[in-house]
């Protein structure tokens, strides 16, 4: 029994920068799915990832389980790229928190095994009336990590030290860490095949193959008819030549 795979590719991700596109491409190939990367014709700065149509659902499941493509983290370069004309103290504080949290999230997501990281920060608020310099609100942080199944990529104490070392006045004990496991990558399954006579093909490619076969048969029939007509004409010409002679 011969198995044939004939099918069109379908795009599953659009508007990715090159780093994100390469990450998605690598993840899919590791999952056993052949994928391709191409520049978007409408915007040459971003890329499109395509896979065979029959594998599109499993490809999306793999990317979802791995948290890909990653959301863009806004660090200091992005947050302060467009400065406000007259930022208020509250606005400036919010922008600083957003940028600092984004930088920490980027760092955590560089660790192999960490799929996504979310960081929420509360900066210390000084108390001008306190004689001992104790802040009115102590610095705090909360970290949510989505990681691949065991072994754990980071210990809780390591996460606390990393975050505390990035925020002034923040102690490791004031960093709450929550770790959640990501869904497992779906196992690779051989797609069910459909029969076209003695040939086995992917279900999504059956109509295409039937169309190709019918087209081929139509061409063969047309050629046979032309050959028959030509043979009859030649035979008629030969008879005429014999009658003249």
Give short descriptive properties of this protein.
245 residues; alpha/beta; three-stranded mixed sheet; 40% helix; disordered N terminus
Walkthrough of the structure:
The chain has a 3-stranded mixed beta sheet with strand order 1-9-8, with helices on one face. The longest helix has 39 residues, at 206-244. With 245 residues, the protein is an alpha/beta fold. Helix content is 40%, strand content 23%.
Provide a compact summary of the structure.
With 245 residues, the chain is α/β, with parallel strands linked by helices. The protein has helices at residues 18-30, 56-66, 76-79, 89-109, 156-164, 206-244; strands spanning 2-4, 9-16, 36-40, 43-52, 114-122, 140-147, 175-181, 194-196, 199-201.
Specify the number of helices. 6
How would you describe the shape? elongated
Q: How many distinct beta strands?
A: 9
- Mean pLDDT comes to 81
Distance between termini?
A: 59 Å
Tell me the fraction of residues in β-strands, as a range: 15-25%
Cross-sheet strand order for the largest sheet: 1-9-8
Radius of gyration from CA coordinates: 32 Å
Helix content: 25-40%
Q: pLDDT below 50 for ≥5 consecutive residues: which ranges?
A: 1-6
The largest pleated sheet is described as:
3 strands, mixed
Structural class: alpha/beta
Helix-strand sequence:
EEHEEHHHEEHEEEH
């Amino acid at each position: 029994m011969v198995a044939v795979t004939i099918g069109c590719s379908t795009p599953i991700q659009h508007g990715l920068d090159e780093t994100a596109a390469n990450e998605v491409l690598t993840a899919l190939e590791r999952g056993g799915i052949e994928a391709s990367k191409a520049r978007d014709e409408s915007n040459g700065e971003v890329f499109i990832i395509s896979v065979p149509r029959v594998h599109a659902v499993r490809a999306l499941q793999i990317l979802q389980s791995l948290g890909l493509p990653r959301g863009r983290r806004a660090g200091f370069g992005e947050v302060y790229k467009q400065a406000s004309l007259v930022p208020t103290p509250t606005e400036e504080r919010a922008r600083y928190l957003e940028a600092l949290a984004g930088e920490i999230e980027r760092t955590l997501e560089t660790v192999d095994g960490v799929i996504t990281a979310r960081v929420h920060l509360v900066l210390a608020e000084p108390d001008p009336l306190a004689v001992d310099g104790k802040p009115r609100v102590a610095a705090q942080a909360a970290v949510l990590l989505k990681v691949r199944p065991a072994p754990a990529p980071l210990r809780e104490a390591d996460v606390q030290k990393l975050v505390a070392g990035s925020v002034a006045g923040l102690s490791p004990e004031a960093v709450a860490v929550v770790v959640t496991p990501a869904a497992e990558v779906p196992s690779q399954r051989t797609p069910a095949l459909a029969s076209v006579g003695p040939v086995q093909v992917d279900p999504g490619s059956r109509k295409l193959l039937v169309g190709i076969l019918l087209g081929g048969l139509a061409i063969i029939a047309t050629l046979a008819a032309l050959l028959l007509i030509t043979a009859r004409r030649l035979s008629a010409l030969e008879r005429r030549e014999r009658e003249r002679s």
